[in-house]
Structure formats: structure tokens, C-alpha cells
Design a protein that fits this description.
This protein has 178 residues and is α/β, with parallel strands linked by helices. It has a single domain, classed as Dihydrofolate Reductase, subunit A (3-Layer(aba) Sandwich), CATH 3.40.430.10. It contains five helices and eight strands. An eight-stranded mixed sheet has the order 4-3-2-5-1-6-8-7, sandwiched between helices. A hairpin with a 5-residue loop joins strand 7 and strand 8. The model has no long low-confidence stretch (mean pLDDT 91).
Length: 178
């Protein structure tokens, strides 16, 4: 049995948007190891917006950066009802009965999401997400997209927590047993 895991950088006030503007001051080897572990899977699960951004950037990124080869070579599953062609190498569109398709995929694959807040929220609401990794940064951003929309209620169970030397807290949640 496989799984779906999500990893997100998040501020104290719940913002996940544009982490490139607030998270790098807190990045260190501890966080690098946590992020690396989240990327060790059979494929990436991406929402449409994240896919579009990645597909624009990574194919022409620095070929000497080993992360470029990892991103381009990874199997990618794009959840979208509007995308008709996925041109980035190793990309497959997941549409139609998305819940059934993802349940089928996770029977024998470990998938990880990066970004894709709308997708992550939906996965949680549909009971498809096995682990939610939140890397909570000790910073208040003030505005930007948050992980959950107003009124969302998804009970979770804390599986583990680790505090990095930078003050970032790595929280891992799973589905609540209730």
C-alpha cells in the first residue's frame, strides 16, 4: 500500500503563498533533510497552478544543479480538470473521477505533493492524504494565501513534531481516528 504525503512551508499566521520571500532565512541542513525525505517517493502529485509554474521553470533551470535533474526526471501526476496536455517530461494528467484515480494510484505508489494548497486541502477533505508535513516558520507574513479556507474543519492527529535550530517546527499530522 502506498501513500500520499504533503509538505508545506507555512508562517505562524498560516500563510503558504510565496515562501521564496520569507522562508530562506530559516533554511538549514535540518530542513534540507526533511524536505529531501519528502521528495523520496514514486512521483509528485501537483495541482494545476503549481504544475504550470514548475513546468515553466524546471526544464530550463541550471543543468548543473542536481535538483534540476531530480525535478525534471520525476514522475509527475497533475490533478486538473482543465489541462489538456502536459508537456513537461514524465507528466500525466489526472482528471475525471479524481478521487478514484488517486485512490488507485496510491495502492502501489508513494506520492508527494509540493505546494498545491487547493489540492492539499481537497485531499484532506476527501480523506486521501496520509501525512501532512507543516514546516512552521517563526515569522508572521501578514497577508497571502492560507492553506485552509475560512470555515474549513478537518480533524487531524499529531504524529510527530521536531524543532529545528532555526526555530522552525516540523509538524506531521495524519487523519484523525474519529
Amino acid at each position: 500500500m502506498g501513500s500520499i504525503k504533503s509538505g508545506l512551508f507555512i508562517s505562524l499566521d498560516g500563510v503558504i503563498e510565496a515562501p521564496d520571500t520569507w522562508h530562506f532565512d530559516y533554511f538549514n541542513d535540518e530542513m534540507g533533510a526533511a524536505v529531501g525525505a519528502l521528495m523520496n517517493n514514486d512521483g509528485m502529485l501537483l495541482g494545476r497552478k503549481t504544475y504550470d509554474g514548475f513546468a515553466e521553470y524546471w526544464p530550463s533551470a541550471d543543468p548543473n544543479d542536481p535538483f534540476t535533474a531530480q525535478m525534471n526526471g520525476a514522475q509527475k501526476y497533475v490533478v486538473s480538470t482543465t489541462l489538456t496536455e502536459a508537456t513537461w517530461e514524465n507528466s500525466t494528467i489526472v482528471n475525471g473521477d479524481v478521487k478514484a484515480e488517486l485512490a488507485k494510484l496510491k495502492q502501489d505508489k508513494d506520492l508527494g505533493t509540493t505546494g498545491s494548497a487547493v489540492l492539499v486541502s481537497w485531499l484532506l477533505e476527501e480523506g486521501l492524504l496520509d501525512e501532512l508535513h507543516l514546516l512552521v516558520h517563526p515569522v508572521v507574513v501578514g497577508n497571502g494565501q492560507k492553506l485552509f479556507t475560512e470555515g474549513a474543519k478537518v480533524p487531524l492527529k499529531l504524529l510527530s513534531s521536531t524543532t529545528f535550530t532555526t526555530g522552525v517546527v516540523h509538524l506531521v499530522y495524519g487523519p484523525s481516528e474519529s
